[in-house]
Every structure is written in C-alpha cells, then in structure tokens.
What we know:
Blueprint: E1 6-11, H1 16-35, E2 38-42, H2 49-57, E3 68-72, E4 74-76, H3 86-91, H4 99-105, E5 106-107, H5 115-131, E6 139-142, E7 168-172, E8 180-184, H6 186-190, E9 195-200, H7 202-213, H8 223-228, E10 232-237
Parallel strand pairs: 1-10, 2-3, 2-6, 3-5, 6-9, 9-10
Antiparallel strand pairs: 4-8, 7-8
Helix pairs in contact: 1-2
Amino acid sequence: MDNKLINFITIDKEKFEDESVEFIKKIIKDSISSRGIATIGLSGGSTPKPIYEKLGDNKDSSIDWSMVYFFAVDERYIDKNSKDSIYDLISKSIFKNRVSLLEDHFITPNTSLPLKECIETYENDLKRLVERSNGSPDLVTLGMGEDGHIASIFPNASKSPLDESQMVYHTTTERFAIFDRITTNINFLASSKNKVFFMNGSSKKKVWDEMFTSQENVIRWPAHKIITSGNTNVIYRE
Length: 238
C-alpha cells in the first residue's frame, strides 16, 4: 500500500492526548456547523482511554454537546457495567461530566438481550443514527492490535470482513479477553467521513509497517479497507 493514502502525524508523548482531543473536537465542530449534528464512533482500549477522559473533562463552550452522538464501534458481549465493556469505559470518561446525556447520546449494544436480538437491535439503532448524518458517521476512532485486528474484526476469520449482509455481526476471539464480540462491519467503518487510528509505541508501529509491506489482503489486514477508503489519519505517540 501507498503511505500517501494516510495522514500520519507523529506527536511527542506529552502532547499526544491533548492533540488527539483537539482532532476529535475539530471534526465535531465542523460536523455540527455543516449538518447540525456530529456522529462519532468509538473503539475501546488502553490507548484512547486517557484521550476520552480528557474529552470528558473538556468544557469547550463552543460545542453544543446535545448535538453530539457517540456509538460503540464494537463491544464485548458481557454486562454493560463490566470493567471490560466499552460502555463502562465511555460512560466513565466522555460522559462522566455529562451523565444526563448518556442514555440518549451514547448508542451501544444492549448486551442484556439474547445475542441475535442484541445484534439486530443495535444495527437498527445505528441505521437510524447515521440517517441523521447523511448516511455515514462523521468520525470513527480505531486502533490496531498486534495481530492486526481492528474493532472486533479479527484477521483470517471465518466470516469475510467484506461481507455486507450485516452492518453489525458476531465475532469471537480466543486470543484476547472476552470470547464473544459484537462489531460493526468494515464497510460501515470505511464509509465514515473521517477515520483516525490512535497508535502508541514502537510495537504497534512495527505491526503497522508490517501491514504496509505485506502482500496479504484485507482478510489478513482488515485496516486495508479503511486506509484505501480515504480520509484516514494516524496519530502516533512515539
């Protein structure tokens, strides 16, 4: 792949979180200005956690947070209040000072439902949300695991990441915590008007570089689809 397909930004570790927050805020402001609403997809993980916490602390009066809607890019099929859930991460970071907005402004799978119903309900919820934003999210935040997975789309899975039959579907992993996962599909993520990968440390950069020199396709490297869709950014902390 061609590195020119992405906007790769290297930032000192002292500025990484602040610059990442400013990146998200700019897209929120631009989206509200142009469409009256901002829709932001969020991935979990240790790298974005402090970014989300700083975004939750942010008191920028130029943003009308009632016009900002967040959703989970993927989720673990566990109790939403489990410390391993993305719901728990986001509710205690971005929404810690906006509790009154949590229920209506963070769209997430209802994991108390049976798995099939949970997936179908979440897909319908997302479709309704993005209809308000010209058919696609304004931004999705992503990371890439050391095996090359993004969201809960794992390399060489039995279900092709290019399968468009479901916007939301069930995946499993034996390599990471929580076997059962719910994820949005790669085409939905690629359709986002903007994409950003938050990347921390040399080990993740090594995987990223391996992907760029590899001859293997999107089945092995799901991020290929995101990168080639355009408007993809990487914010990298050395």
